[in-house]
Amino acid sequence: MSEVRTYVVLLGVPGAGKGTQAKLLEQSTGLPQVSTGDIFRYNLKNQTELGKLAKSYMDRGDLVPDDVTIRMVEDRLQQPDCARGAIMDGFPRNLVQADAFDKITAPDGGVHVVPLINLEDDETIRRITGRRSCRTCGAVYHVVFNPPKIENVCDIDGGELYQRDDDKEETVRNRLFVYYKQTSPLIGYYFAKGVLAEVDGSVPITEVQQALLALMG
Ligand code: ADP
Ligand code: ADP
């Protein structure tokens, strides 16, 4: 009999720390980070059909259409590294995607836990406008809160750090708007299912990580 898969869904405003925490959880639990934003950016960089389709939505800070996004996630979860489950970072992001994810995870008893990483909105803007990402491996830094050892150089692979096009302030405000309109209903959705758990996202990265590990049980 195959093992039951564990699915964790990280919720929180853009900039709350989902990607940062998902990467750390991947190291400590062995469950892979599945970041829909990272997959879209990979496709954008390689100019695939999916990347070309996603570009205009991402540039505006709007959601890429559900059918495309859901199919992409289904494909990703069939890869061998997801055999024990996954840490979902940026998916689901609206109720249609959440319903689809319930169907995907139903054979494994649904989503295991949904940590909501809480952060004030003005802190979100500070976090995202100071975010820098590695061009080659996607590792995430912050110019003030989590700087690399050498300015603009990735600690992990020496890659160049850059500011994402959608991390400019006006796009960030639209992403926040999209979050409140489309993603925040998932808080009630998962609360009602009894799997929501709130975590304070304003404390240092290591402390958020400890709180998340405690929830994973
Ligand atoms: P998300 O994936 O939710 O959009 P990220 O993990 O990319 O968020 O983090 C956004 C920015 O905030 C990054 O620049 C990151 O280095 C920084 N950051 C993440 N967690 C913390 C924290 N606990 N304290 C301070 N800065 C943080
Ligand atoms: P952040 O970590 O700052 O919240 P992401 O990297 O998760 O941002 O997402 C960047 C962009 O990729 C989004 O603004 C959106 O255009 C697209 N995207 C990511 N995940 C999804 C999703 N689940 N559904 C639709 N679009 C998505």
Please tell me about this protein's structure.
The protein has 217 residues and is of the alpha/beta class. The chain has one domain: P-loop containing nucleotide triphosphate hydrolases (Rossmann fold), CATH 3.40.50.300. The chain is 47% helix and 15% strand. It has nine helices and eight strands. Strands 1-3-2 form a three-stranded parallel sheet, sandwiched between helices. Strands 6-5-7 form a three-stranded antiparallel sheet. Strands 4-8 form a two-stranded parallel sheet. It is globular. The model has no long low-confidence stretch (mean pLDDT 95). One adenosine-5'-diphosphate binds next to helix 1, helix 2 and helix 3. The site of one adenosine-5'-diphosphate (ADP) has 19 residues, from helix 1, helix 2 and helix 3.
Rg over alpha carbons: 17 Å
Average predicted confidence as pLDDT: 95
Model regions low in confidence, pLDDT < 50 over at least 5 residues? none
Major sheet details = 3 strands, parallel
Number of E strands: 8
Look at the structure and name the CATH superfamily. Answer: P-loop containing nucleotide triphosphate hydrolases
CATH class: Alpha Beta
Taking strands numbered 1, 2, ... along the chain, how are they ordered across the largest sheet?
A: 1-3-2
Distance between the termini: 23 Å
